[in-house]
């Protein structure tokens, strides 16, 4: 309780706001002013009035917030909280693909470093990837870094030609059909809801595929009362809060993003007190990585996502 009160006091003193992704610990989500998926948080980060943003998420999220709001101070509660997939593409391959395909659009999943973003034409998140890629005039799409999301998008837009990259999220990649079958055997009436970072075989046995927010929305709209959730376990807090009458299960190997779990209330308090772990970006990288992010926000607003 003392930590919470101290955080509230410092937030006022420093004109700070706390953003949190659904994958962080429940006790961190409870402290947040805004909780959401990557798309919601990037939209929020672009329009906040407070001078300081404490970003409870991994480093690409802090970088994106800084790129979209370069005049603000962005603080990361844990300096080592990173996303493995964000590094799974390389700028040399982007250069080669651009040479090989004249009209190519480089589409960059927001789970990527600023260095990758600045070499890309537009960012997407799992909540808007299909709509944004569909709206592009380009026939050729080089989708980085996530191969699973890329294949999910490509299947829905057969008229475009996709060049794939080999990145993946280690947390979603490890979800196995066998474990989902076991969960179904235990809970035969449960619907399977999966994030598109999961592999194709998992998506094929799912009743719904969508972003973290999409999964939360779907669980509310569905008439089912039980669900097997194929995404990171932090989402459970929001599902239980919104739908207390429904039951949610995970697979035997529960999907946990250790980097998201590095963030604790004590670390939030520490950075608010000290100003440590500020996101500092090279001016040029900041400016150039902002462009594909702003393009995402512009196209998303146009297609009313
Ligand atoms: P969304 O927030 O777009 O659902 O993405 C999930 C994720 O892995 C974030 O790191
Ligand atoms: Fe990255 Fe996967 Fe963790 Fe999301 S869940 S931050 S994609 S490693």
TrEMBL record:
What is the protein name for this chain? Quinolinate synthase
Superkingdom in the source lineage = Bacteria
In terms of Pfam families, this protein maps to: NadA (PF02445)
Q: Which organism is it from?
A: Candidatus Mediterraneibacter quadrami
What role does this protein play?
Answer: Catalyzes the condensation of iminoaspartate with dihydroxyacetone phosphate to form quinolinate.
Q: Which GO terms describe its biological process?
A: 'de novo' NAD+ biosynthetic process from L-aspartate
Record field: catalytic activity: iminosuccinate + dihydroxyacetone phosphate = quinolinate + phosphate + 2 H2O + H(+)
Q: Name one GO molecular function term.
A: quinolinate synthetase A activity
Q: Which UniProt keywords apply?
A: 4Fe-4S, Iron, Iron-sulfur, Metal-binding, Pyridine nucleotide biosynthesis, Transferase
